[in-house]
Every structure is written in C-alpha cells, then in structure tokens.
Amino acid sequence: MAELTRISAPDGVAPAAAYTHVVMGTGRFVAVSGQLALDENGKLVGKGDPAAQARQVFENLRRCLASAGATFDDVVKLTFFVTDMAYMPAVRAARDEHISPDRLPAASAVQVAALVSPDFLMEIEAFALLPE
Question: Global pTM?
Fold first, then answer.
C-alpha cells in the first residue's frame, strides 16, 4: 500500500463529511473504468434496486483493483455517476462496506441524464495509488 496523506479540512474549506478533500501520495497510478452493476456473465444485477446495484458495482471495483494488486485502501478518488441523487445513500452504504470511514478517498458525485442503458442506475470509477 502506498503511503497516502488525507486532508479532510484544508485551511479555509469546510470540513468534508462523507469524503476527503485532498488525498496525496507517490507511487504507481491505477485507473479503474466506470463499473456498472453487471455480474461476471455480463448480466444486470438489481434492476430498479439502487442498493443491489451499488453492492455489485463495489464488488466489481474490488475485483478490478485486485487485478492491479490494489485494495480499497489504495483508492485516492471515486467518482459516482448516478441517474438520481436519491441513490447516493445506497452508494454510500455499499462504499462503507469496503472503505473505513477514517480512510475515505476524495470523491465527486454527479447526476447524469442517462447511462449506457436505462436499467443502470449508477456507474462508479476509481483511481488508486500503489507503492513504486
């Protein structure tokens, strides 16, 4: 795991409640493309169910990170693309199953008009940093 520094409340910026404002470190950069709620066979998991989709997306992220030799402890940034901000509590609950509240990465949440299919409620990408 790379040595990461997290700054939750930079001078003059309101403290972050559910993310970290700044995460920095040195090492090898890992970018994980936006993951959807697809199982290993490419089938949608949780049609109409944001909690089920969020759990599957985070499981896919975990597997992608593992393929690069990373874990959620190495994640420095998450970007959440949701079709409705009402899904964010389900996203945060799934995130919290994988990431300790004292190790939260930087994050952005964006509501989008649509994803690749109307059945997908969210897509989440991750950036991680591994030791040299």
Answer: 0.93
